[in-house]
Design a protein that fits this description.
Length: 719
């Protein structure tokens, strides 16, 4: 058992060592999983471990400890009623053992001669003793174990042999199947199995509600099961201290709708949602995603939100619904839903709190009409995509957007405010909105196929923009290189491209002008251009797609044709992803009155080209920046002449990053000395005797591959 350890102050009154079967077979006792508990989550790996433990204990005929079962009485019961116990810790083990026993009893009840090892009880009595209460109890009261709503009917069907419900729990079904398969395997030793079950030892702990803090104990106990996830901990934190009837009401009215919003496998998305919600709720504090529960708990306690759990749950439920509409495709309004889906597909996560804030403003006030909200969405999409095209990273945007949504509620004109804020940063700054010139040039010239994850997005977007009422289904078409990716064995293509065909192919093959969509990618293959034009069916000249209009009267596909199509599509792109038309004097009014000192005009594009797309250090630099930003969201990136740095508190340097173009690696300058660092792998290099590193950093550490980032980040985070 990890975490909680008994102390003189905390030791429950009724903690005893006991046989598991004694607990399961207690007269007129039912174990109920509280509403705040997570659903059943064990999979085959945990089942396999338990099976091995049981069989080992049976073969050796030795006791085997499987952890603590901790429970508390649900309420005072009459002399004739059943004792209902809320199972606080032990759900996963008790459920799995019930499935194991059910599979075993199914097997021996088929042929009672298989139970010859039993000397004092009939096989059918075991099911009544360990899986059911007395026959005098009806309905749900018959069952020894009552799970949460999502799992309850499935477990009851499995232990009683009844038909499974339509909405069954796959984990429960699969895990019973796992045990059934082992029990029916050749060589199964039933007597050893039963000895193993009889040898399972537990700490049987019944809490005294008047003396023991069930919430603290539950939160810290994590015996053999999977670690509690943020969704488990937050649900427990809000509901556990409340009376049972209050728990049930708040769970059914508020918490269960939240869980249904995210689905059964909700941990990752729910954790992300809580993190983004905290960015909205906690000004001045930069929450870490891996500490979502701790941040949530601190916020609730600091702001006394635990005094009104219903109000807190109402807010969480509403924001969860908005989050699902924005980023999980649940929006019913088609005009807004399409915009949300496109923004979500760009996968720039720092935008999420701002979008949640805008959605709330639109939904709950009259300050942001739908038309204005839609225009903001268009500008946000344009901002994100233009930055992707010109190779701008999302690092640093958390802080930029945080300032926006924290001022949004007081803004006189939300649309003007957001639009202006998107435009206040110049070309050398973190949150630069690429101008038409920068965007069009990069869109036409850069490789938009390799190392560019938005290929399908932008081609589908260009296509659907031309016919918004008849959009093509996402993912239905393949990306086609009109000039094939390989033409070394294609004389016709070489002749068409001219004497410099090698250069033309290398420069233009993966650029905008040469890329399109088709449903006939396999048929086209590396065929000559004339064949691609006239192929039946599916020739480019017969295509109904707007992207293929250029081929209607085109007989030659050479450099001029490719560049001409790129120019035409780039011109359209300026309309698809527009630059906001806001007067400069309006934008100036939103600029800080005392702007921070510019970084002498240094830019990544001009002074650190190896960090840009196609550069020797581009991918490694991007991965490192993403990791640094994730771990330290309050750090701000800036550009100096000889390095790219991160700082806090105005201009306080944290780390400096330099490229090593000859090796494609990165050298990181740290502001702490090697003497001050915990460096078990010895990565840090002392640079105090060589005039330091970068901008006065006494320590250097190298990043040569992506695998180096995690251990190096451990050193970075000490700065």
């Amino acid at each position: 058992m990890h975490g909680w350890q008994p102390t003189a102050e905390r030791l429950p009154m009724y903690a005893v060592t006991a046989d598991l079967l004694k607990l399961l077979g207690a007269n007129s006792t039912q174990f109920v999983i509280p509403v705040y508990q997570r659903v059943y989550s064990w999979d085959e790996r945990e089942c396999r471990d338990l099976w091995k433990d049981v069989m080992r204990a049976g073969r050796n005929d030795q006791p085997h400890f499987i952890g603590s079962f901790l429970y508390t009485p649900e309420a005072a019961s009459s002399a004739t009623s059943m004792k209902r116990m809320l199972l606080i810790d032990g759900q996963q083990r008790m459920t799995t053992i019930s499935l194991m026993l059910s599979a075993f009893l199914d097997w021996i009840e088929e042929d009672e001669s298989r139970a010859s090892f039993l000397t004092d009880v009939r096989p059918r009595a075991l099911r009544k003793r360990y899986l059911f209460n007395d026959d005098d109890y009806l309905g749900e009261a018959r069952y020894r174990l009552v799970l949460s709503q999502d799992d309850r009917e499935t477990l009851h069907a499995l232990v009683s042999g009844q038909p499974l419900p339509d909405a069954r729990s796959k984990r429960l079904v699969d895990n019973k199947g796992f045990f059934a398969e082992r029990i029916r395997a050749k060589g199964f030793d039933a007597a050893a199995f039963w000895r193993g079950v009889c040898n399972l030892i537990i700490i049987d702990t019944e809490l005294d509600p008047s003396k023991d803090n069930a919430q603290l104990i539950f939160e810290s106990m994590n015996s053999k099961g999977k670690p509690l996830t943020p969704i488990d901990l937050i649900r427990n934190f809000i509901l556990m201290s409340l009376p049972s009837d209050r728990q049930a009401t708040l769970y059914n009215d508020y918490w269960r709708p939240i869980e249904l919003t995210f689905g059964r496998e909700s941990e990752v998305e729910f954790n992300a949602f809580i993190w983004y919600w905290l960015w909205l709720k906690v000004p001045g504090r930069k929450p870490r995603e891996d500490e979502a529960y701790e941040e949530f708990k601190s916020y609730v306690q600091d702001e006394h939100r635990d005094d009104d759990p219903e109000g807190l749950l109402t807010e969480l439920r509403d924001y969860a619904r908005r989050y699902a509409c924005l980023f999980m495709g649940r929006e019913k309004d088609p005009d807004l839903g399409g915009r949300f889906d496109r923004i979500a597909s760009l996968d720039v996560k720092p935008i999420r709190p701002l979008m949640m804030s805008l959605y709330t403003l639109w939904e709950t006030t009259d300050r942001l009409p739908k038309t204005a909200f839609a225009r903001i969405c268009d500008y946000v999409e344009s901002f994100l995509f233009r930055r992707a095209v010109v190779g701008r990273f999302s690092t640093g945007l958390n802080n930029f957007f945080a300032g926006m949504y924290r001022e949004l509620e007081t803004s006189a004109d939300p649309e003007e405010y957001v639009t202006a804020m998107l435009l206040i940063h110049g070309r050398g700054m973190t949150a630069y909105f690429p101008t038409d010139g920068d965007f069009a040039e990069q869109l036409k010239s850069r490789d938009l196929y390799h190392r560019f994850s938005k290929s399908r997005y932008y081609l589908e977007r260009l296509e659907n923009w031309s016919s918004p009422k008849e959009p093509i289904p996402s993912g239905k078409y393949q990306i086609e290189h009109v000039m094939p990716q390989s033409i070394d064995a294609s004389p016709e293509w070489q002749v068409m491209l001219g004497n410099n065909w090698v250069d033309v192919h290398e420069r233009l093959c993966n650029t905008l002008g040469n890329l399109t969509l088709t449903g006939y990618n396999q048929e086209y293959s590396n065929r000559p251009f004339r064949d691609k034009l006239t192929l039946k069916p599916g020739g480019l000249r017969k295509s109904h797609l707007h992207l293929n209009d250029a081929f209607d009267d085109c007989d030659t596909w050479d450099e001029a044709a490719i560049l001409g199509r790129a120019d035409a599509l780039a011109k359209e792109a300026l309309e698809v992803w527009p630059y906001p038309n806001l007067p400069e004097q309006v934008v100036d009014a939103y600029r800080p009155k005392k702007a921070a000192k510019p970084d002498a005009g240094w830019t990544i594009e001009e002074h650190h080209p190896s960090f840009m797309p196609g550069g020797e250090c581009h991918e490694l630099f991007g991965a490192l920046c993403e990791a640094v930003e994730q771990a330290n969201p309050d750090w701000e990136q800036y550009v100096a002449k000889y390095y790219v740095g991160y700082r806090t508190g105005g201009r306080r340097l944290r780390i400096a990053i330099q490229e090593r173009t000859s090796t494609g690696s990165l050298a990181i300058g740290l502001v702490r000395t090697v003497d001050d660092l915990v460096d078990p792998e010895g990565r840090a290099q002392d640079k105090r005797d060589v005039q330091n590193f970068g901008s006065g950093c006494p320590t250097r550490v190298d990043v040569r591959t992506v695998a180096d980032i995690t251990p190096v980040l451990a050193l970075v985070n000490q700065c």
